[in-house]
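Person: At home tonight, work slowly through the protein below, taking as long as you need, and write a paragraph about the fold.
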Amino acid sequence: MIYTPKVFRWVSPVVSLLLVAAIACEPVLACTRTLYVSADGTAVITGRNMDWKEDMGTNLWAFPAGMEKDGAAGSRSVRWVSKYGSVTAAGYDAGTTDGMNEKGLVTSILYLAESDYGPRDPEKPVISIATWAQYVLDNFATVAETVAALKSEPFQIAAPTLPNGAASTMHLAISDVTGDSAIFEYIKGKLVIHHGKDYTVMTNSPSYDQQLALNAYWKEIGGLVFLPGTNRAADRFARAAFFLDAIPKAMDKNYIAAVPGKSFNNQAIASMLSLQRAVSVPLGITTPGQPNISSTIWRSIADQKNLTYYFDSATSPNTFWVSLDKLDLRPGAPVKKLTLQNGAIFSGEASAHFKETAPFAFLPAGQ
């Protein structure tokens, strides 16, 4: 056994090795996703931080149902017609990083250095990882439906280099209006799915099973005794899990008077935004010897019961939101874009500011 004096605990050899691995694996894209479900089930909210080492020109897009889509992989590409409309956040206007569809299904793509999608199988269709999250939003209404469709691995994922030259090694988190959740990872060429309502937090390295083991260790210590404080993925996981358990799951009499409309749902959204800010990495932070630790450049809060997508930029003074029911997402409606790059500022409900725009081209799968 290995003694850890900082927390006065004995650590098993397995956990100590995981702690070392978590320190050694420092991802470029370091994000945090959490899933909140209220005590009475009336509020289901997914929060997400996008951490990245530069401005990625994020814009919001409204994609209607009925669009013909493909996996950006040429003749071998997966092809589909979207069943559901969605609002998404795009990176470099080359891929969907986050979003919610009209059924309240939420997808979030996060970096995972250990991702390995395996060698190409010439018998299988291909999908660019840039379209993975969008494929799920377009085709499925629930987590269970998504898991049932993807567990047989109907396609291969191609991971082309991102526009800034970084590797696109990602894993995918999804959640729905029931509070169901699933994590999809490709480890050593095989798809691994963690499916269940207990999977409420996801960050980055190491792989999800090891993240759960590390978090079990920190839970035993107790967040009121000690919480790991760095901006590494495993530490953010532990803090996010503690905060998620700690925030109120019912109306809080201490704060509800200050909440707009004195609404419990608005209180829950405020709690989730506070949580995501608490596990954010300050904008422009630099860490000696760790050049790849990334700043939080934006946060999203998806209110899945009320189909409202909140967006909070680290470089903007305002949080704004988009009500999906105020957008035309019916088949035949135009694609629309809310341009955020170059310092645009919005406040309040922003659906009226979306402008009809030709859809962007997803990052091609390559060879």
